[in-house]
Amino acid sequence: MPERVETPASLSRTITRDQGLVWHPYAPLDGPAPYAVRAASGVRLTLEDERGTIHEVVDAMASWWCAVHGYRHPTLDAAAHAQIDRFSHVMFGGLTHDPAVDLAERLVAMAPGPMAHVFFADSGSVSVEVALKLALQFQSAAGRPARQRFLTVRGGYHGDTFAAMSVCDPVDGMHSAFPGVLARHSFAPRPPSARLVVHDGEQHWEYDEVELAVWRDAVWETARLQRDELAAVIVEPVLQGAGGMHVYPPECLRALREIADEFDLLLILDEIATGFGRTGRLFAAEWADTRPDIICVGKALTGGYLSLAAVLTTADVGAVITASDFRALLHGPTFMANPLACSIANASLALLEKRWQHDVSRVASALDDGLQPARALASVSDVRTIGAVGVIQLHGPVDVTAVTRAAIERRVWVRPFRDLVYTMPPYVSTSDDVATICNGLVGAVREVHG
């Protein structure tokens, strides 16, 4: 149970000073009080609530899915210190440096498909902006300048900047808050649901083949009718994240690749949340053995230490851009290829390459076992897992404040949304850590929603 302790005045006042001053994501200025972070180490956070009570909790969120190695990892700390002792930032216009080149080489070697070029961006959302811009430049350079729209699916989420918002779900996303400003794109139906199950030690996918066929035909017809307007297809492969933690069949990716090839579209895969092992493959595209033209990566790239993302593309796309009138990809963030972030990313990916399969397999098994009791709760409509992702879906909206508080009382930090109480824990979480997470989530849902 949490223990009340004396805290220094400067820390105990943090929450009071924050409220009404600092805007938090998707929260009003007069919303519920946040928790103040006192410390973070391994997979644990030390939090202070508005009453001054201290809670040590297991982080079920990996800080929105990026802190895959946990906090204060000695290897990543050492990489940060070593780079700071050299230089922490230089502009990337006209300059280069080893951390960026090393990281680009590593990403190209890791990525699915024949990726050949890397563009570094500030964040995942900005990487999506760059990918969309790249697709438009490609189509124009290829002699198809009228192709200015994108084909995507319902239920997707790609970020909060304007172009990224425009390819997010048009109903459950933020389109209604910005009428007349967001570009209008083409939305095919949401892919059918799928479930990854283990039988006799082998993984296989379960889904309704009739639903898949109907969906494929609908997307194909949409692309056929709008082929002269469309530049690219963009989707999150296999797992739609903030759009509802929706798992869909890998065959959908194969269908989208076929559609893109048939109608001269690029295939953009947003692997920001799914990349680097989260779904049980190094990249989610590998579930379908699908070759994308453009990939966006971020989140786990630096292990949660600094914001960094990247756009990877093929030699064919790069050649078309280079032969165009502009010859360049028209984007250039101030902090592009920040050497401090790139150095940490290199260290983070080196750690991943050594252990991710073992770690994700352990976490996946513990999530699959630990969340099963939620199926018996009256408030729960579904429980699903894929890789290091576990989801409890309710019949109605989650009481976010109450469930968060109830989970903290059970030594777990969780951030529910919509009708979902979910976890994407750090990969380094032990089986006991994951058991604590599962018990906390199931117990909090049972207490608040029954």
UniProtKB/TrEMBL annotation:
Site positions per UniProt: Participates in the substrate recognition with KAPA and in a stacking interaction with the adenine ring of SAM: 26
Chain positions found as N6-(pyridoxal phosphate)lysine: 299
Major enzyme class: transferase
Subcellular location as annotated: Cytoplasm
InterPro entries documented for this protein: Aminotrans_3, Aminotrans_3_PPA_site, BioA, PyrdxlP-dep_Trfase, PyrdxlP-dep_Trfase_major, PyrdxlP-dep_Trfase_small
Catalytic activity from the UniProt record: (8S)-8-amino-7-oxononanoate + S-adenosyl-L-methionine = S-adenosyl-4-methylsulfanyl-2-oxobutanoate + (7R,8S)-7,8-diammoniononanoate
Tree of life domain: Bacteria
Biological process annotations from GO: biotin biosynthetic process
Binding site for substrate: 64, 157, 299, 332, 415
Subunit structure: Homodimer.
Annotated family: Belongs to the class-III pyridoxal-phosphate-dependent aminotransferase family. BioA subfamily.
PANTHER family linked: ADENOSYLMETHIONINE-8-AMINO-7-OXONONANOATE AMINOTRANSFERASE
Function: Catalyzes the transfer of the alpha-amino group from S-adenosyl-L-methionine (SAM) to 7-keto-8-aminopelargonic acid (KAPA) to form 7,8-diaminopelargonic acid (DAPA). It is the only aminotransferase known to utilize SAM as an amino donor.
Protein name: Adenosylmethionine-8-amino-7-oxononanoate aminotransferase
Source species: Rudaeicoccus suwonensis
